Amino acid sequence: MSNAHAPAPTSRREQILKEAARLFAERGFHGVGVDEIGAAVGISGPGLYRHFAGKDAMLAELLVGISERLLAGGRMRIEEGGETPSAVLDALIDGHIDFALDDRPLITLHDRELDRLREADRKRVRQLQRQYVELWVEVVRQVHPESAESEVRAAVHAVFGLLNSTPHLGRPGSLPGRAEMARLLHRLALGAFGAVDADGAAVAPVVVEGVAASRRAG
Known about the structure:
By secondary structure, the protein is mainly alpha-helical. It contains eight helices and two strands, in the order ααααααααββ.
């Protein structure tokens, strides 16, 4: 098989960040030493300082970096568009599900360690997150135009809470496979957004790109 489409090799810097995220999530930021991170990637602890100034710099790059990637990914999916606002929303949900299933340590790290960032980095994370939320709010309002903006924004935050619960869902062996879990999360997210249409109208199941969802009957 040709290697033309093979993924680019992971850089040493990326390896360090991946292992740092895993270790920080498992043991806490102060429970992990530079030597342990170095050992996880096969270099000496002092060797890490050729890549990062220290653990604080790793933490900042992890949390600012994932916020930047989520926002950029959301913008890309909106720009690529779809035939309908619902298709764009499906793409946004799928992108966030990929993050929630594949980057669980970063979710744990954000929940536990965000306050350890320098004020400037913490403000940057919050700013990026607000922009990401507003991307979703705009799309969801297109799908549910009769819903109040405040309710849509609350629903977006609730869906993020739902999708970002993946680190707490139990041991991997006790859960459905990745594809099944992704489909389940997608259905749950669509169901939550459908709930903003709270005018008592009947709810009918529809299928959007192969994903069953509850949407208000016309």
